[in-house]
Amino acid sequence: MMKSRCHVAIVDDDQSVRKALERLLRASGLDAETFGSAHDFLASLPQGTTPPDCVVLDLQMPGTSGLDLQRQMARFGLQLPIVVITGHDEPGMRARCLAAGASAYLRKPLEAETLLAAIEAAIAHAS
User: Fold this and answer.
1) Which pLDDT value is given to residue 101?
2) pTM for this model (two decimals)
3) Residue 52, preceding bond cis, omega within 30 degrees?
4) Residue partners of 27: CB distance under 8 A and separation at least 6
5) Domains of the chain: residue spans and CATH
6) Straight-line distance from the first to the last Cα atom of the chain, in angstroms, rounded to the nearest whole number
7) Can you tell me the distance from the alpha carbon of 40 to that of 38, in angstroms, rounded to the nearest whole number?
8) What is the CB-side half-sphere exposure of residue 32 using CA atoms within 13 A?
9) Over 80: is that where the pLDDT of 48 sits?
10) Average model confidence (pLDDT) across the chain
C-alpha cells in the first residue's frame, strides 16, 4: 500500500467533488489538498516548496482546462504524476491526456478503489 505521507492535490471546480475526494483520500491515509481552479493550484507552487506527490485533475473546468494545466506544468518542467478525472469523455481525449503526461484517465463517477489504485500506480511509477 502507499506510504502514509503521500500528498495529493485535487484540482476540480466542483466543490462537492473536491470534498468527497478529499474525504476519501484522507480516510485512506493520504494528505489531500484541494484547489478550485488550475490558477489556484499553480499559485500554490512557489519556488522552493515541495510539490504534491500526485495531482488528481478534473478535465472540464472553466478558464484553464485540465489538459491546458497539464501542458502548462510540462512547460514549467513540473513532472508530477497526474490522474485525470472527467465526467465528459470525448473521443480521443484519453489519448491526448496520456500523451500530455497523465498517468491515468478515469471517468466519473469514480470507484474509490479504482481512483486509489491509479494514484498509487502513478506515484510508484514516478518514484
Assistant:
1) 92
2) 0.94
3) no
4) none
5) 7-42+51-126 (3.40.50.2300)
6) 14
7) 6
8) 21
9) no
10) 92
